[in-house]
């Protein structure tokens, strides 16, 4: 039976410049669904990227009523753990609902959103064919920049013997090759069961 587990966790305050900060959240995906290029992935996203995703999904699936995001309140305080956790819960509920909809799962933007660190502009360019790399290339390239999950290592060893077949250099133009974009995800105990 197919499953998709999504966790939105580990909120962190990020400094944009000396005047502006924002909170981003780790999105951890573990699945056995054939809809996903990678079976485990981990990215960090901020609230306004969720807003962009919802708008794009809604414009492509006009007949579907998408779940709401947590409300954007002018009184949101990133230093208030209750505010941050309330938003985190709302973002998780949003992703849980949209990842259960077959029509929404066919949208490449959703896959790029939860499985790469591409910006909204780069996701749009990729989906519309304006990049040298495909959606699958972007997802594989991002995964190769990050630490592998134990489950994927086992699957890779069982499935293929050529160890370097899916590791690419970061010269594909998909972003920095250092660990600054790695979110240090670890597979949760529940996800280690196959």
Automatic annotation (TrEMBL):
Residues 150-194 are annotated as: Disordered. It is found in: Cytoplasm; Endomembrane system; Endosome. It comes from the Eukaryota. Residues 3-120 form the PX domain. It is a peripheral membrane protein. One of its GO terms (cellular component) is endosome. Residues 168-182 have a biased composition (Low complexity). SMART domains: PX. Signal peptide: none annotated. PANTHER family: PX DOMAIN-CONTAINING PROTEIN (PTHR46209), SORTING NEXIN-10 (PTHR46209:SF2). This is SNX10 protein. It comes from Machaerirhynchus nigripectus.
């Amino acid at each position: 039976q197919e499953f998709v587990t999504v966790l939105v966790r580990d909120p962190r305050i990020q400094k944009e410049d000396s005047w502006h900060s924002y909170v981003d959240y780790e999105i951890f995906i573990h699945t056995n669904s054939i809809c996903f290029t990678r079976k485990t992935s981990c990215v960090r996203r901020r609230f306004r990227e969720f807003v962009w995703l919802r708008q794009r999904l809604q414009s492509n699936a006009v007949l579907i009523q998408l779940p709401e995001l947590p409300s954007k309140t002018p009184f949101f305080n990133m230093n208030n753990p209750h505010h941050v956790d309330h938003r985190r819960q709302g973002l998780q509920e949003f992703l849980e609902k949209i990842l259960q909809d077959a029509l929404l799962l066919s949208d490449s933007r959703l896959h790029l959103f939860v499985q790469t660190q591409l910006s909204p502009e780069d996701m749009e360019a990729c989906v519309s064919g304006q990049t040298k790399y495909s959606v699958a290339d972007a997802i594989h390239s991002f995964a190769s920049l990050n630490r592998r999950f134990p489950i994927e290592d086992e699957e890779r060893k069982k499935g293929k013997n050529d160890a370097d077949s899916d590791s690419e250099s970061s010269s594909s133009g998909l972003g920095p090759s250092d660990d600054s974009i790695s979110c240090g995800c670890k597979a949760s105990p529940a996800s280690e069961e196959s």
